[in-house]
Structures are given as structure tokens and as C-alpha cells.
Amino acid sequence: MTDECIVPPRTWQDPETHYLKAFQSEWYLLVVKLQDCITSATVDFWSSRGVRFGHLPITTGSISSPMGLGSDSSPVSVSMFDVSTYLADSMQFGLEYLCRLSEAGAYYMMPAFRGEASDSTHLCQFFHSEAEVPGTLADTQVVVEEYIRHILLRLRSQCGAEIEKATGSLDHFARLDDPTPFRSLTLDEAINLLGGSPELVTTDPDLGFRGLTRAGEHKLMQQCGEFLWITHFDERSVPFYQANDGQGHALNGDLLFGPGEVVGAGQRHIDGDSVRAALRMHEVAEDEYEWYVAMKDNVPMLTSGFGLGVERLLMWVTQQTDIRDFQIFVRENGIEILP
């Protein structure tokens, strides 16, 4: 690298002065340009397929990561005009609703809110690019791969010079020139490769469902390469809305690259009875999801969808290791920060 290298200034470490120091940083000029490029590429991608953008609220009474079995996120509850509600962790359910109003499916890009503290790979407020389309998990995996290639190659084309100043090379984009579908492993296959080490594989002490640690994700990428799907998790380890194969496996998949999981995808239950059974199994009360069940009763439909964390994607693009470098406006739970 040369003296012209673009590096994150880590101004987020002092939230009170961050916004003033960011004006003087070439890094944040780059982040804004990358965000803009991703947005325009996303609109072009979905518009060419007839998938419609959804204007959805950021509040919901039906969070998509409830605190039942398999949940790995905390909701953000708020009170508005003496009514309790949540800031959206995802509006996936809204996209499922829009699929019944838009034949080819629906998408959005909007903020997501989580109750956990931020760390090097996790923001408590981040940007989500999500879509829901008719079809199976396998259909959605194909679309995800097309979408990833589309936006990343657009970034290389329009922002390549600046990205190279941040990374020293554009060699990491080479995999995207290969049209071969991304490699895919089931969770069972992944755990066999990892040998079941507790540093790499987690097991719930009460219910026995398994998962991968961040170290496990990185080990798999070292062994199998980046852009690696891990599919068919244990049914109880995922939220209730993921459909299953009837043999204890969810019809879901995580796409690993860069910091680890960047995309989460899944096939949904078709009808209300399937949702009711899943709610009971995950020990989640039906009350807040009554409308969702009624929608599936009235308009059964096979859909699948995915969510992509934009800042995690940018970590791969710029080969950075701390997601907090991608906040234009710093946000931390429990701290009042201006602007």
C-alpha cells in the first residue's frame, strides 16, 4: 500500500466528537459512496425482475426474532403515546404480506434495531437489505447469489479505485467472476468437518440443538472458501417462521463470507396451521402473531426470503474487521448521542 491508503479513523470511539472529525476523513467519503452504490444497484436489480419496493414502518407489534427457542436477538421495546410496541428488528412479515400484493415479490432497505450491545461484528442499529419472493429456499439461494454478484461487481466497477486504496488490492473480488454456484454444506456436514469442537460448535444444554460459533464459521471458510452456504439447521435453533423438512431440519441457510454470516435466508410456512404448530414447538405465544396466522389461513402461499446486513457486506468489500467503522451516525444502546 501507498501513503494514499484510506484507513478508518475510528472516530466512533469518541461519539461526542465523531461527527466533526468525520468531516476530515476520506474514509467516510468512501463509506457514503459505497452506500449509495449499493442502494442504486439494489434498486436496479429488483426492478429488472419486477420485484417491488415496500414502504414499511419501523415499528411493529410482531417482531421476527422473538425471545423463544432458537432466538439469538433481543427486541427493542418502546412506548409511543402510551402504547407499547417494538422498533423493527426486521420487517420480513411485512414483506410476506406484500408478496400477496405483488406477484413477483417485494423488497426494502431500511434500519434494523437490536437490543444487544454492539461489538466488532454487530451493530445495535444497522441497515438491512431484505427481500421476499415466491418459491423455495433453493430458488432464493439462486437469487441471493445473483444479487450478491450484481452489487459487488457494481461496487468494483464504480468504486474500484477507492476500494483498492483501502485494501491494497481488488483480488478478493475474483471469486465473483466465476459463475459457479457458491458451495453449500448442510449443518450436519459442516459439524462433521469441524469435528464437533466446542470452540467451533455450540449445543444447547437443555434441548440439544446445535449451532456454529463465529470461530466455527471462520474455520469453515478457511477449509472451504468464502461464499459458503450452511443450510438445514436444527429446527429448534431457528425462529418459528422458518419452514422445515419434517425430519428436524429447518429450510434455511446462512451465506458466509467476510466476517461470517452476511446473509440469512429461509423458506416460510405456507399456511396457518403450519405456523401454529411452529409457534407451539418454539414456545411462542400466538397473541402477537394472530394477524400473521390469519394471513396464512386466508392466503396460503409458498415464499422464501433473505436479509443481508449492509455493513457486514462492506466489511468484506473493504477488508475491514470492525463493523463500527461503517456508522456515519454513531448509535449505541443506552447512550444519548448527538446528532
Give a written overview of the molecule.
The chain is an alpha+beta fold. The chain has helices at residues 15-22, 26-47, 92-99, 137-167, 187-194, 214-224, 272-281, 290-298, 310-318; strands spanning 52-53, 59-60, 76-80, 83-87, 106-113, 125-134, 183-186, 201-203, 210-212, 228-231, 252-257, 260-267, 303-309. The chain is built from nine helices and 13 strands. The strands form three sheets. The protein has an eight-stranded mixed β-sheet. Strands 2-4-3 form a three-stranded antiparallel β-sheet, with no helix packed on it. A hairpin with a 2-residue loop joins strand 3 (76-80) and strand 4. The radius of gyration is 20 Å and the shape is globular. The two termini are 34 Å apart.
The CATH top-level class label: Alpha Beta
Structural class: alpha+beta
Give the rounded overall mean pLDDT.
95
Shape: globular
Number of strands: 13
Number of folding domains? Answer: 1
- Helix-strand string: HHEEEEHEEHEHEEHEEEHHEH
CATH superfamily: Bira Bifunctional Protein, Domain 2
Which residues form runs of ≥5 with pLDDT under 50?
Answer: none
Helix fraction, binned, reads 25-40%
CATH architectural label = 2-Layer Sandwich
> Rg from C-alpha positions?
20 Å
Largest sheet: 8 strands, mixed
Strand content: 15-25%
| CATH topology tier name | BirA Bifunctional Protein, domain 2
What is the topology, as strand order, of the major beta sheet? Answer: 1-5-6-13-12-11-10-7
> How many helical stretches?
9
Distance between the termini: 34 Å
